[in-house]
Structures are given as structure tokens and as C-alpha cells.
Amino acid sequence: MLGQSISKNSLLLAAFALATAGTLALTNLGTKGRIAEAERAAQQRALFEIIPVENHDNDLLQDTIPVPAEAWAQLGSDSTSKIYRARQQGEIKALIIPATAHDGYSGDISMIVGVNADQTIAGVRVLLHKETPGLGDKIELKKHQWILSFNGKSLTVPVAEEWKVKKDGGEFDQFAGATITPRAVVGQVKRVLEFVSANHQTLFEQDKQPLAGGIHE
């Protein structure tokens, strides 16, 4: 009888463990799905903040090219990363390039960088980070205007040597009590500009058959 009771309890525990594991797995998948969807929505909003609808006449979300493998390390990208192209009358006016700074204070800082055809910055937006609330999170536009300081900048304005925070002798402000975070963002934005400079002709080469379609938000 004791053996049967132990065996029955073991089966019940095993069944409970399987059911719990299944529930957790489903919950995890559902959570991942919601997080991914939220990230996509945030990216789409940021795309249209950098290149407003009145500044392009193509389907920005569909007119893309993959980030070349040789640039993955430089941009902090991977095989899923794609560059968005903003056009007017078929001519590429700007690119929006995904990039990730791996040297943030609390980990990766995911962002997109808009670069005009003249190699000036159209805008920068941080999409995802784990920086300290009240300090490093000032890289978010909703928390601070700091990210707008990149607008109009290039590798010549300021000169390349001044693409640093002021504490390091550069052009860009740091945050009180938080230097590592802005330092990481400044460095990664500079690397995006260097990537564009080295590949400008290829990146802004006009397709014979540019993508058509309406603009979607």
C-alpha cells in the first residue's frame, strides 16, 4: 500500500510539474511576443519621428536593405537588422540605420540613427536600454532633450576628434552622475557615421526599380 501511495504521489507530482512547465513556457512565449510587438511599435514611431511623413513619399517600412555582415560588429547589428531608406521621387534622401552600443552602464543600448544624403544626422532615437532611472535614462527623448543634440551633426561638425562627451574633451554633454551612458551613445552614433562615410556611394545608390506604395504609420 505504501509503495502504491508513493508511486501515485510521484505520478501526480510529475503531472503537476509538466503542467506547470507548460504553463510557464506558454506564458514566456506570450510575454516574448508582446515585448517584440512593443519593440516593433516603438521602432515604427521612432522612424517617423526622425523622417516625418512629409519628408518622404515612399513606404519607409518596406523600402529596406539588410545591414551588410561586414558591418555587424561596427554597428552592433546582426542578420535580422535592416536599413530603412527614405525617398522623394525615387531619390534616396536619408537612411535610418539600427545600431547597438554594447558598452552602456547597464548593458546594451539599442538605437536608430537617421543619416541624410549629405552625411548629416537627421535624428537619433533610443529604442531599448536598461540604464539607471533618473540618470542614464535621460537618453530617452521623453525624459530629456539630450538626444536632439545630434541633429545636424556630422563627422566634420564637430570634427571627428570631438565626438566625445565633454568630460573626455569632446563636444557632447554628459549627465550629472552618469557619464558612461552618454559616452556609449556618442561613440556608437559616431561609428554609424563612419559606416555611412565608408559606404556612402553604395548605400545611396539609386535602384532602377524603387519600391512603390503608400506611406504607413
From TrEMBL:
Principal subcellular localisation of the protein: membrane
Residues in FMN-binding domain copies: 104-196
Membrane topology note: Single-pass membrane protein
Signal sequence, renumbered to the chain: 1-19
Residue numbers carrying FMN phosphoryl threonine: T179
Keyword Transmembrane helix in record: yes
Key word Transmembrane present: yes
Enzyme Commission number, as recorded: 7.-.-.-
Cofactor: FMN
Protein keywords: Cell inner membrane, Cell membrane, Electron transport, Flavoprotein, FMN, Membrane, Phosphoprotein, Signal, Translocase, Transmembrane, Transmembrane helix, Transport
Family named by the database record: Belongs to the RnfG family.
Assembly behavior: The complex is composed of six subunits: RnfA, RnfB, RnfC, RnfD, RnfE and RnfG.
Alphabetized NCBIfam families for the sequence: PRK01908.1 (NF002519), rnfG (TIGR01947)
Known function: Part of a membrane-bound complex that couples electron transfer with translocation of ions across the membrane.
UniProt-recorded name of the protein: Ion-translocating oxidoreductase complex subunit G
Biological source species: Cellvibrio fontiphilus
